[in-house]
Amino acid sequence: MPQEAEKSAANLATNAFRNHLPELHRYLLRRVGQATDADDLAQEVFARLLRVRDAELVRDPLAYLLGIATHVVSEFRQRKEHDRVVFDSTLTDDVCDKSESVATRGPAENLELKNRLERALAQLPPTHQIVLLLVKRDGLSHAEAARSAGLSVHTIEKYMVDARARLRIMLEEP
Predict the structure, then answer these.
(1) Which of 29, 108, 113, 144 is the most buried (most CB within 10 A)?
(2) Of 83, 104, 138, which residue sits at a domain end?
(3) Inter-residue contact 108 to 66 (CB < 8 Å)
């Protein structure tokens, strides 16, 4: 990047930092729920802002900043979801509604059930996976899951019902 473009991007980032950091932080915190995550993501947003090639074309710095933040949050959620441990025995018991038969199974049968559950979870839409894992694996209430995922409580409830129904169907298939 030429020096003039770097200066322009640096000026844009500096002004955006001075004028819009509180709004950016609130925006990020509402979407990720953790102050430390919001701080890390804010750094990433400003790092990307420093790499803007045509900073002089940015007419509304706050809107541009929040646009970058939207992409950063999306990538963060995908990364976080990808890093999650998918299998949880409590979830298996709940999904199958056959907890007493699971306890009497041998290791090979439990491994097969684990593999089937992982395949079934992978077939769910990403939002359903997130909601199911937040509520069942992480033990969050619907309200807490809604805040964490940036969704409404009604949407959390809807996704939970849909995800459980889909899992039951997929786990019953051979």
Answers:
(1) 113
(2) 83
(3) no
